[in-house]
Amino acid sequence: MALRRITGLLFLCVSLTSLVVSADNRPDVAKIVTKSDAADILGDAVRDPSPRNGEGADGYYSKCNYYTMRRGKSLVIRLQLPGPNAIAPDKELQLVAQANGSTESVSGVGDAAQMFTAGGEGGFASRVLMLYVVKRNAFLTIGVSGFANDAVALEKAKTVAQKLVDHL
């Protein structure tokens, strides 16, 4: 009987330890792409971010937005590790492509990636480039705005995405 209790207690301790370790191993995008990194990417000083991380109905989320001190440029980062009832990342990428209609495939980052651009005309003050990346069981969204040149914006978004992918 005492051996059963000790075994049960040991099992409980191991289970709780693995729960804590797995929660600590979840990526925090604000720690991976820091305020200093964001300033380098955007080419200007950035305001303090308000990162958020948490568990939701669809899985784990980590989010962070960086805005330059002078208006005009921003970096938006979203990471989702879907839970068992969520849409799979590759399916999510297909749905984003269908919803936006004018996405382009992007190579060189993750398992699959698509980009979408808008703005700069018709009342939008600046261009916005959204990069959607699938890497294994993760879905990343990187938004970069304020760059007139899409190729420059794409390289900046890919740099952020690669930095995140390296931590998955």
How do the helices and strands line up, and which of them pair or pack?
Layout (H helix, E strand, L loop, with lengths): L1 H23 L4 H4 L2 H8 L9 E5 L2 E9 L6 E9 L6 H12 L3 E2 L6 E8 L7 E9 L2 E8 L4 H16 L3
Antiparallel strand pairs: 1-2, 2-3, 3-7, 4-5, 5-6, 6-7
Protein model, in words:
The chain is an alpha+beta fold. It has a single domain, classed as Protein Transport Mog1p, Chain A (3-Layer(aba) Sandwich). The protein has five helices and seven strands, in the order H-H-H-E-E-E-H-E-E-E-E-H. It has a seven-stranded antiparallel beta sheet with strand order 1-2-3-7-6-5-4, with helices on both faces. Strand 4 and strand 5 form a beta hairpin. The protein is globular and about 40 Å long.
**Secondary structure category:** alpha+beta
The CATH class designation is Alpha Beta
What is the CATH T-level topology? Answer: Protein Transport Mog1p, Chain A
SSE string, helices as H and strands as E: HHHEEEHEEEEH
The CATH architecture name reads: 3-Layer(aba) Sandwich
- Record field, number of beta strands: 7
The strand order across the widest sheet is 1-2-3-7-6-5-4
Radius of gyration: 19 Å
Number of helical regions: 5
Bin the helical content.
25-40%
- The overall pLDDT average reads 84
Q: How many domain modules?
A: 1
Beta-strand residue fraction: 25-35%
C-alpha end-to-end distance: 43 Å
What characterizes the major β-sheet? 7 strands, antiparallel
Q: Which descriptor suits the 3D outline? A: globular
Q: In terms of per-residue confidence, which ranges show pLDDT below 50 for 5 or more consecutive residues? A: 1-22
